[in-house]
Amino acid sequence: MYSMGELNKEVVDLVWERPGSNAVSASLFRRWTQGLVFSETEHTALEQFEGGPCAVIAPVQSLSELREEVVSLYETWKGRCGVLLFLYSVILTKRIENIRNEIEDTTEPLIDPVYGHGSQSLVNLLVTGHAVSNVWDGDRECSGMKLHGIHNQASVGFLTLMESLRYCKVGAFLKSPKFPIWILGSETHLSVFFAKEMCLVAPESPSEQARRVFQTFDPEDNGFIPDCLLEEVMKALDLVSEPEYYVSLMKSKLDPEGLGIVLLAPFLLEFFPDQDTGIPDSFPVYHYNGLKQSNHNERVEYAQGTALVLGFEDPMVRTDDTPVKRCLQTKWPYIELLWDTERSPSLN
After folding, report:
1. pLDDT tens, 166-214?
2. How many other β-carbons are positioned within 10 Å of the β-carbon of residue 212?
3. Which of 3, 125, 200, 254 has the fewest CB neighbours in a 10 Å radius?
4. Per the domain annotation, does 297 fall within a domain?
5. Within a domain: 113
6. Catalytic machinery residues
């Protein structure tokens, strides 16, 4: 059991301090000393005053259980240190030792002591209840070490611009959550994308399953696999995989020029030509960013727009190439966005 003084130190060390480092700077700490405050122009949108606490504010803005907790004790949370009080409450409820057991590198604090942004472990803790450091599905072995990922479908999803830059790969448990709400990560900030169409999070169709399985054999996300892997992909999808004839026939058909590769789009067209994903051709979408300066007219409001989700053929509609769109393309490769405002929403 901890004494009160020991408990306070354990919480502070977990959140702020890297072993052997100096104390966190006063300016960085000040950025986190804000309350959970709703915008004057969008009464259900939390406002973020400075960079840093989005790692708490963004998850609290999507998750209904957290929002209910904030509203029920709003007089407590809206005060000067409401964000930190809320974070410390989550940590003490989860228990410090349990969080330490889940974090991959226990020398890394939940808040970066140099830049002030929340770690992926902190985001995962608030989104999934587990402070694991990775975003892939399940656990992986690397050089004899077990690296922990996400083990169950999350209620709220997570997509990141870092995946479009090929720095990481988000798994299906975060990409396909229970509700059509996704936290969007940039290099420095978190915002929220959401819709009202529950069909967006329906169980995956056979073609979506095929895309996911194909991509497990294409870890670099090149959009193709070596033709020698075609048989394994077909077996994984319970397609006919008799190698002496059918697989050889499919290799010839899918690689007529003999390049030694199989492209994703022809593969899907061959085996799932008429699959309906159940997703409407267009649907309303919304984006939330808690920073005033990142919003149109510097007012924290939900940006509204329309999403078009097209097939894997060449899309007929092309909209601007923005960070929000590139982030969403890690979930819907051919999504197009038409926003109601002249200025597209910002990830930062």
Report:
1. 888 898 889 999 999 999 999 999 999 999 999 888 877 788 788 878 8
2. 16
3. 3
4. yes
5. yes
6. 54, 189
Tell me the C-alpha distance between 303 and 339, whole Å.
7
**Domain limit, last residue, from 271, 289, 306:** 271
Q: What are the structure tokens assigned to 210, written together?
A: 């095929």
Q: What is the CA radius of gyration of the chain?
A: 22
- DSSP, collapsed to helix, strand or coil, labels residue 196 as coil
Helices (H), the chain: 4-15, 26-32, 54-62, 64-72, 74-77, 82-94, 96-102, 120-128, 161-164, 172-175, 206-216, 230-236, 248-254, 264-271, 323-328
Beta carbons within 10 angstroms of residue 114's beta carbon? 10
Q: Each residue of 55-86: b (16+ CB within 10 Å) or e?
A: bbbbbbbbbeebeebbeeeeeebeeeebbbbb
CATH number for the domain spanning 253: value is: 1.10.238.10
Residue type at position 329:
Q
- The number of residues making up the chain comes to 348
